[in-house]
């Protein structure tokens, strides 16, 4: 999907999600229409992958706006951005940060009951985002769905792990854990040895 980026974006700190994304919204809707009209097309899989990429960019754009709103203490606007991401982009890596933003925003607005509901969801799914005193760790939430992690397909950077992911990983035998070479090559190199 990187071919959609401007050449300068690759070599600078500019991010696509910090720029105007109106054309991405149009492209997303066009892909939705394409898949609805031609579900058995050979291009339907490619369109779905592009929709996923665009959805991540749009979610990141919303979270950038939410971060800005938190900096300027516009907590209601930040909550609305977070809720938008949760409602419209539920499969994106920005969900942990969106949940944390909504919980933090409601706490700052004085709505402790609603904030506690979102904190409970965070405790259940992303326990590392809740501090021991029950408050939200926004800094940790921002690093969960980092661009570096997404750009390297989860090979580098932190991943947002749910409780079920952590349990499944701890239950996995040592020989099923994959090396960095195995992950980079998508399983083609350095295959883990299986007991026969």
TrEMBL record:
Membrane as a keyword? Answer: yes
In its UniProt entry, the species of origin is given as Dendroctonus ponderosae
Keywords assigned by UniProt, alphabetized: Cell outer membrane, Membrane, Signal
Q: What is the lineage of its organism?
A: Eukaryota, Metazoa, Ecdysozoa, Arthropoda, Hexapoda
The answer on whether this UniProt entry bears the keyword Protease reads no
The UniProt record lists the Outer membrane lipoprotein BamD-like domain at 14-116
By its UniProt entry, which InterPro entries does this protein fall under? BamD, BamD-like, TPR-like_helical_dom_sf
- Name assigned to this protein: Outer membrane lipoprotein BamD-like domain-containing protein
Highest taxon of the source?
A: Eukaryota
């Amino acid at each position: 999907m990187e071919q959609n980026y401007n050449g300068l974006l690759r070599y600078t700190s500019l991010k696509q999600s910090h720029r105007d994304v109106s054309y991405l919204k149009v492209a997303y809707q066009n892909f939705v229409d394409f898949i609805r009209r031609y579900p058995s097309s050979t291009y339907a899989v490619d369109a779905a992958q592009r929709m996923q990429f665009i959805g991540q960019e749009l979610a990141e754009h919303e979270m950038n706006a939410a971060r800005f709103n938190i900096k300027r203490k516009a907590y209601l606007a930040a909550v609305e951005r977070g809720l938008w991401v949760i409602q419209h982009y539920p499969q994106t890596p920005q969900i942990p940060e969106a949940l944390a933003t909504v919980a933090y925003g409601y706490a700052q607005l004085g709505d402790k009951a609603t904030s506690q509901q979102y904190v409970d969801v965070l405790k259940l799914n992303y326990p590392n985002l809740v501090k021991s005193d029950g408050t939200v760790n926004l800094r940790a939430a921002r690093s969960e769905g980092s661009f570096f992690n997404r750009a390297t397909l989860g090979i580098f950077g932190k991943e947002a792990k749910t409780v079920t992911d952590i349990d499944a990983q701890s239950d996995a035998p040592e020989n099923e854990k994959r090396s960095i070479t195995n992950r980079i090559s998508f399983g083609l190199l350095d295959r883990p040895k299986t007991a026969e």
